[in-house]
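Why Exocyst complex component SEC15? Reviewers of the renewal asked for a concrete example.
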Amino acid sequence: MPGLIEPYDDLIGAVQQIILSSSDTDYLDQLIPLLKNAKTQSHVQPLVQALNQISTEREAEIERICNNNHQEFISSVSQLQSVREGTVTLTSEILELSRSIEATTEKLAEQKKALVDSRSVRQNIDDTTQALKDCLEVLRLANQVHDLLGKKSHYAALRALDELQNVHLREVTRYRIADMIERSVPATQHLIAEAVKTDLNTWLYRIRETSQFLGEVAFYHTEMRRTRQKERWAAEQDSFLAASKLNSAIELVADEQEEFDVLNNEEVQVDFSPLFECLHIHEALGQMDAFRAEYATTRRRQKELLVPSSLTLDDDDLAGLSSLLEGIAGFAIVEQATMHKTPENFRTRADVDELWDSMVQSAITLISAALPSVTNDEKLLKVKGVIALFVQTMDSWSYSVSALDSLLLTIFSKYSDLLKTRYSDDFAEIIAGDDYMPMPITNAEEFAKVLSVSWYTPPPELQDPVYPCILPFSQMYPMICIDIRNFLNQIYLFSDDHFSHTAVIDSTLRTALDDLLVTKVANSLSSRLSSQYPGQIVQILTNLEHFETACNELESLLVSARSSASAAGPITLSATAAFRQTSKQAEIRIFELVNSKIDDLIETAEYDWLSTYIPDIASPYMSELTRYLGNIMSSVLIGLPETLKEQMYVASLAHVSSALLSLPLDPGVTTISSQAVTAYALDVAHLVNFVTSLDDDAALADLEELRQTTALMQLAAQGKGDEFFDSSVSGIKFGTVDKLKGAELLEKVKIGPGSRPALASLNTLGSGGSGASGGRESPTVFGGGAGKFTTGLGERFGKFAGRDRS
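Here is what the prediction returned.
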């Protein structure tokens, strides 16, 4: 529809368009707005003129058309008349409508003015209302901030305050209330920061109080992991799995199905929400650096409160040590979790490690100061167990435990010293209380017990013994073997669970064991070699030989049980050589005692070298001498190996031979009668016959010089001494006789008035005869009856059995 039509030409075009309308409805729809606009814009007269012009143009056109077609013209005139009449009527209506519209327009203008006035008032009311609403919303948010603070919703309060400051206050900046609230925002932020710090301090206090229990739970979890690992070892028998340690990759993979959160479980729950809230709030306030420094200071103060000023290890359950290490573990676990759960720059690895190192050093100082009061190795082993559990727990949390490993090394040094002292006393007690007699066994159970603890392989005759039986060593040997095994076990017990210095264990064990065996066994037995009782020395020698065998077995055992995989090569104990050397000393001591007794007996020989009496039997000293030699063979030396026993016996006879030879060669003897030669030869024959009865060619060979020298003296008494200087005869009859000594004896021996054929044939001495030994009493074993030997048998074995602490 056309708008405001001001030019006259436009009115004509509008009227023409209306006339050309296709229907009456369109005609009216276009005409009415045109009339209304003409009335409104005071264009009524131009509209009337435009209508008249259109009417005139139409009449002219009708006339033209009529001229061409009269009939049509007549019809058109009639129509035109009708149109004209309608136009006149319409003009009247338009005028009437124009007057009506003008009246209505004036009224409408008045109403519009009133409406504009009311709208202005309404706008003011609306603006005031909106301003009140905005101010009330600001006040509501301000109050909500304090309400949230009261409900401890600090982060929500800060968010509400931020929204109030950055959104809602901007909408009311033209009001004084906005300025007042804007000035109060910093104070409210400070209130929020202080409130969240208060909550954080409460949380930190609770964490500090919970640290020990948290550490206890962590220790328990580690102990459960140990148990599961041992069960897997026992179940799978996998050497590769058995070689894996706790916290190794293999152990962690094998145990991964057993999930356990130390910080969140049925026993303890650590909620980090207060810390996170405090972090968010200080980050939002731009105070992260100050908060980080303050938090670090607080944790350092808490660490100092965690470590006591002193520590005692006197209590049986080591409650003080456990509490200290559990507290440190809980504190460190919280620090580790804090580092992982918070932003990277809040708690750095350096901060956490600094606290950890400080706590560990404080703990090491306290423990080191308390260690001198521990004088019991079992308690020290408990101390090590608590520390090892602490080390394995913290190792699983990726903390450095090298300083604690050094502490364990110090504890092991003290532990080995205490063990060494205890077993030194035990060894001394065993050696002092030994009866130095072969060990009696009354039944199979005792026999099996001795074999199980001793390094001893019974000879064939003892493979199926008849009880009671006798073992060659005294009871000290199996008792010390038990202590050696216990010492080994208790040293290696220290390496259970956790101890990284395995090479130190091997070295310490070898050194300590060597020292114990050398100083407390070998040297102690060596000091007892001054005894005047050959039987005791023989028993010591037997024990020493078994100890030497035990050392050889121990060397192999130490190699197989060696903890350090990098170590290689054999292990040689100096105790082996010490026992061997002491055994040689014992052999020499036995020689000395036997030879001393022989010397004592020979010293009782009272030869009258100028005698004119010829005896019928051997001298009493010679009978006693052969009886003594028989006794030591059948009793004193019976416990020795055959080779050694034969060696000693041969040496003893050699000494007898030498001692007898020295009698006539004594410088105090200047003349020897033939009767004295006969008496001397009778004693020598008695000795030779005794040795011949032993069926020992080596021993008999040692008497050859004595026999030939005696034969020379007999020849000299018969006046046939010149044969000694006949090289053809001397080499056969007197090959072992020293030329100078033979010549000396020839000078001393006088030629007798006659000769006795029986005595003149001394070259055949030893060829047979029963000798003096035939009338000897049967020697008694161990100098007493079997009943006396087995007295107190059960008591002695009971002492032995009591040593077994394995």
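The longest helix spans residues 70-150. This is the kind of structural detail the renewal will allow us to pursue systematically.
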